[in-house]
Write a structure and sequence with these properties.
CATH topology: hypothetical protein PF0899 fold
CATH architecture: 2-Layer Sandwich
Distance between the termini: 36 Å
Strand order of the largest sheet: 2-1-6
Radius of gyration: 19 Å
Mean pLDDT: 88
Oligomer: single chain
Largest sheet: 3 strands, mixed
Structural class: alpha+beta
Shape: elongated
Low-confidence stretches: 128-132
Number of helices: 2
Helix content: 25-40%
CATH class: Alpha Beta
Number of domains: 1
Number of strands: 6
Length: 132
Amino acid sequence: MRGRDCDRAMHELSIACDLVESLGKHLDEQAPGAGVRSVLLRVGVMSGVDSQALRWAYDVAIRDTRFAGSRLEIETVPLVVWCANCQAEQSLENLAPLRCPSCSALTPRMVRGRELEILAVELIDAAAPVAG
């Protein structure tokens, strides 16, 4: 990796490390001893997060943690804007320009697409046998 690619990966690595650290602290309180099978995130196309780079970064961040061997699942959220002219939410295929696909009016109000949210964490009970 070089230049911008490296900078981009560092951004996602920081996000992945923060994710693992904060979820680890929460799990220490709520489910001590449980392992993690998967983490499901919701990532908007306008969040500034590259999903492919985040998956790579997650694999790096989970080494030697209770998350080791878990998988990161990402649900991508499209850009949805509010069109004042149509009085409706509209999904945009192209991110620029921000125009309603129905009436071509400018639609600067983003309703969805900037999310970066944890949706679910699937745990492995330390006391239960793991099915093959």
